[in-house]
Design a protein that fits this description.
The structure is a single chain. By secondary structure, the chain is an alpha+beta fold. It folds into 3 domains: about 100 residues, Orthogonal Bundle (Arc Repressor Mutant, subunit A), CATH 1.10.10; about 80 residues, SH3 type barrels (Roll), CATH 2.30.30; about 80 residues, no CATH class. The chain has 9 helices and 12 strands. The strands form 3 sheets. Strands 7-6-5-4-8 form a 5-stranded antiparallel sheet, covered by helices on one side. A 4-stranded mixed sheet has the order 10-9-12-11. The protein has a 3-stranded antiparallel sheet with strand order 1-3-2. The longest helix has 17 residues. The chain is globular.
């Protein structure tokens, strides 16, 4: 049977199987049953059909009682990169974007570039499997090279996507921009305890940021208060220390000592810098200088 001859409902289930294999490395019959409220026989037919359409994509692990992704996996569906990244960020794993024709009257800012989805898939698989990934990475400081990383989270920082991981080369947790990874290979060895997400201090530390309308650039601060739902002219948000600098840069929050940044783009001011100076990656924030 060809994919174009499959009915819409079954295409949805096949897309789910494809998505789960690609980004989590496995799928079970029970997951199909629970997600689509179908019977055991129907789920078995879906898996058999998927195997027929893409025989090199999965194999059955009798010990774990689940279907696992093969190293020669090639997506059966064309997963749109931008839509798929949004799905991953919002923990949606149905793969429906691969077959949906619905067009909604909503536009989002264009990204200058998106990561290779197969790179994202291998990183995601490694996270689910608690495994090490060998990557070919190009950095601004040292150029291209190979390194082993232990990833624990994939992050959209508002401007680009990166993976938070323990780097065995530098022996610390770092951010790696996904578009700078040209090759990713999931290794057989498992991560070690000191490489786990629980040991990433900056990731597990939350910082309270007090944001107020910019005291110099804004003529009518009430407008900014309405934009951001401020109460009594301020708002407090909590962010992971590892992501704080990205957040402040994305929203052009003036983090200078005396609200010194000029320009209409600086509508917000970090009002409690004196309490959080030195925490996280604040050096990425606009105007930040150590007190």
């Amino acid at each position: 049977m060809e994919l174009e001859n499959v009915n819409y409902a079954q295409k949805q289930r096949l897309a789910f199987i494809d998505f789960k294999l690609m980004f989590t490395s496995s799928v079970t019959r029970n997951e199909i049953i629970q997600r689509f409220e179908c019977g055991t026989a129907a789920a078995s037919r879906d898996l058999a059909l998927y195997k027929q359409l893409a025989p090199k994509n999965l194999t059955y692990n009798t010990t774990e009682k689940q279907y696992v992704v093969e190293s020669k996996f090639k997506p059966l569906f064309n997963h749109d990169p931008r839509k798929t990244l949004v799905k991953l960020a919002n923990e949606i794993s149905d793969g429906f974007d691969a077959i949906s024709d619905t067009k909604f009257p909503v536009e989002a800012p264009s990204a200058l570039n998106v990561p290779d989805l197969m790179i994202v898939a291998r990183i995601s698989q490694a996270i689910f499997l608690n495994k090490v990934v060998n990557i070919i990475y190009t950095s601004l400081s040292s150029g291209s090279g190979s390194r082993d990383i232990v990833p624990h989270s994939i992050v959209d920082n508002g401007l680009r996507w990166h993976v938070r991981a323990y780097c065995r080369k530098s022996k610390e947790f770092r951010d790696f921009v996904l578009t700078r990874i040209t090759k990713a290979t999931v290794m057989s060895d498992l991560s070690k305890e000191h490489e786990s997400k629980e040991q990433d201090t900056d990731w597990n530390t939350f910082i309270s940021l007090e944001l107020v309308p910019h005291p110099k650039n804004i003529q009518y601060p009430t407008a900014i208060a309405l934009d951001y739902g401020m109460v009594d002219g301020s708002m407090t948000i909590k962010a992971r220390a590892a992501l704080t600098g990205y957040l402040l840069r994305r929203w052009n929050v003036d983090c200078s000592n005396n609200a010194d940044l000029n320009g209409n783009e600086y509508q917000l001011y970090l009002n409690n810098k004196h309490l959080i100076s030195g925490a996280g990656n604040l050096t990425l924030a606009p105007g930040f200088q150590d007190l």
